[in-house]
Design brief:
heterodimer; A: mainly alpha; globular; B: 5 helices; about 45% helix; Thioredoxin (chain B); Thioredoxin_domain (chain B)
């Protein structure tokens, strides 16, 4: 991952998780590999460029944030980026599954990504961020 | 059809996990681990006249760890018998291993003799913690 970026508005991260949850739910309902691919690209932007560059981040900044006022606190970007990378891996596997005619692989991979996104959207619990903390511990 | 069933199943399972995590977060759990290492030794500070050690394990990038540090140093400031020590698990992975800590922030309470008596994962619930310290 490239240079660390500035801290994030946690409400924006939550907003992105909500949109991600909806998109992944639609993938499961429609079985559309192309929609899965679109979400995979969003995850890739979040992981390799930063949350600010994802369409959900842009939508939050332009439409949602101006109605909310300034954030009371900010959260570090690195764990969130890592969580996007985890999402990217699962969504990429799911996309390959759907597009290569392996629907079971697609469903299972997208189901995992959906569970993580939903936990963040509904409870503010970031599974990928927790994993980042654990990995930091293991690396040290 | 399969997609719909999986969707409902995933949302139900994730909701259950989320509710369990939420109900546990910040709760004071009394622990009794006789073989656990001595808290004052891990903190690298003698007990002195303190009767209680709150050892906080944090990681470098962790928003709730900062909230926890503020809360615990406030508790320690109000009660001279309580000492708060924060350890970064990136610097001291051995401490996390010895105490079997898997998440940050985790706060472990040790009595005067260094025996572990309580454990809190997540940002502690202040009232619950203060009550536990008074006992």
């Amino acid at each position: 991952m490239s240079a660390p970026d500035g801290p994030l508005d946690p409400r924006g991260v939550r907003f992105a998780a909500i949109v991600t949850t909806v998109v992944l739910a639609l993938v499961l309902l429609s079985g559309s590999g192309w929609l899965a691919l679109a979400q995979t690209l969003v995850f890739a932007l979040g992981a390799f460029a930063g949350m600010r560059f994802t369409p959900y981040g842009v939508l939050y900044r332009l439409v949602v944030a101006p109605r909310l006022g300034p954030p009371a606190e900010r959260e570090p970007a690195a764990p969130v980026r890592f969580s996007q990378l985890v999402g990217f891996v699962f969504a990429a596997v799911g996309t390959v599954g759907y597009l290569a005619g392996l629907p079971v692989l697609g469903i299972v991979a997208i189901a995992f990504a959906l569970a993580a996104a939903f936990l963040n959207a509904a409870f503010g619990y970031c599974l990928g961020c927790e994993m980042y903390g654990l990995l930091a511990r293991a690396r040290a | 059809m399969v997609g719909l069933l999986v969707l409902v199943g995933v949302l139900a399972a994730a909701t259950a996990v989320g509710l369990v995590l939420r109900s546990r977060a910040g709760r004071v759990r009394t622990t009794a681990r006789p073989a656990a290492p001595n808290g004052w030794d891990l903190a690298g500070t003698p007990a002195g006249d303190a009767r209680f050690l709150l050892l906080q394990l944090s990681s470098p990038i962790c928003t709730p760890c900062r909230q926890t540090a503020v809360l615990l140093s406030g508790v320690a400031a109000q009660d001279p018998g309580v000492r708060h020590v924060e350890i970064d698990v990136a610097d001291r992975p051995d401490v996390a291993r010895e105490l079997s800590v898997m998440r940050t922030p985790t706060t472990i309470g040790f009595d005067r003799t260094g025996r572990e008596v309580l454990r809190i994962s997540g940002v502690p619930r202040r009232g619950e913690l203060v009550t536990a310290l008074e006992r």
